[in-house]
């Protein structure tokens, strides 16, 4: 008899960050993970994660909304389905719910983790195998202070942890942002690559001015300078500048990838498992970009270890990953809810070798950081 899905739990987990993380649209002091535990009738448990940035400020799903969608609609739809058939389970979810990509990504991850554990293989084996065991991983400098960012970058370079730095800009006037980036690039010189992420904050005219100055300052890559829907503007910027333009918010899955390719809108695609509704959706989007000669980049929604390692299994299968990854989310967290935190060494994240994701939840830590546990404590006073 085939094992079925017997229960699904979605847990909100609030973890403090090591420092304030300033983006154009929000400043993060903590990160909220939605952790999914999916239990099967054969006793196997799969885990997954859905995480976004700054509540509803980055995407259309909030942590609380993700939990509600899973508890109310998605988990009941998976009740008693064949736990070994991930594609059929995902078709079922697409029938009962439109969108809700982040929530679906967490469930697909948990199904894949469970099935890989059942077969006794790493998750990446289910995807056809890894073409690389390590992923170059950058670090985002986003303290909001130029001198502090330079110190942070120097320390991480000396530790050989990161040699590419992404700077979050778009909060201040264009000239202030350019001065901030140019100072950091001057300090680091050829020892590090510097990229910027504007998170849609500029209009096209600001972008034209800003990108020209950033290009002259030696910046290597410009991420999502203008709003996601302004594809024609993105195409004009991509045609105008030599420095590559990367689409992030503009590309969720393969359907966006097709439109971006058709319009010549971007030189690079930022792939994220949450945006694409899961690992297979990410591979579809990657295939569109790759076939069109668009360079690929392994993006993050600043997930904790479970989501970051799920993405790592996916990105390790891509033949082309020209711009490496930004899977540093676990390093931004002061503490975590897993037994073993991921390994970052020699400027790269190392794929765990255990079965499934290769990640085990630390139940004590989970009990400590889960939001409902904290509510009980406060309510009991
Ligand atoms: C984004 O927009 O790319 C990735 C790194 C980081 O610091 O924020 C994220 C979100
Ligand atoms: Mg981005």
Structure notes:
- There is one protein chain.
- The chain is α/β, with parallel strands linked by helices.
- It has two domains: 5-120 and 362-372, Enolase-like, N-terminal domain (Enolase-like, domain 1, 2-Layer Sandwich), CATH 3.30.390.10; 126-350, TIM Barrel (Alpha-Beta Barrel), CATH 3.20.20.
- The protein has 14 helices and 13 strands.
- It has helices at 63-78, 86-96, 101-119, 123-126, 146-158, 174-188, 204-216, 231-240, 254-263, 279-291, 305-315, 329-332, 363-369, 371-380, and strands at residues 5-22, 27-40, 45-51, 134-136, 139-141, 164-168, 193-197, 221-223, 245-247, 268-271, 295-298, 343-345, 348-350.
- The strands form three sheets. A seven-stranded parallel sheet has the order 5-6-7-8-9-10-11. Strands 1-2-3 form a three-stranded antiparallel sheet. The chain has a three-stranded antiparallel sheet with strand order 4-13-12, with no helix packed on it.
- The termini are far apart.
- Mean pLDDT is 96; it is low at 376-381.
- Bound molecules: [(2S)-5-oxo-2,5-dihydrofuran-2-yl]acetic acid and magnesium ion.
- [(2S)-5-oxo-2,5-dihydrofuran-2-yl]acetic acid binds at residues 53, 140, 142, 168, 197, 199, 248, 299-300, 302, 326.
Share of β-strand residues? 15-25%
Instruction: Provide the succession of SSEs.
Output: EEEHHHHEEHEHEHEHEHEHEHHEEHH
Poorly predicted runs? 376-381
CATH domain topology of the largest domain: TIM Barrel
Instruction: Supply the number of helical segments.
Output: 14
Distance from first to last alpha carbon: 49 Å
Mean residue pLDDT:
96
Spatial strand sequence of the major β-sheet: 5-6-7-8-9-10-11
- Tell me the number of strands: 13
Taking the sheet with the most strands, its summary is: 7 strands, parallel
Bound molecules: [(2S)-5-oxo-2,5-dihydrofuran-2-yl]acetic acid, magnesium ion
CATH superfamily of the largest domain: Enolase-like C-terminal domain
Organism: Pandoraea terrigena
EC number: 5.5.1.1
Domain Mandelate racemase/muconate lactonizing enzyme C-terminal: 147-244
Pfam families: MR_MLE_C (PF13378), MR_MLE_N (PF02746)
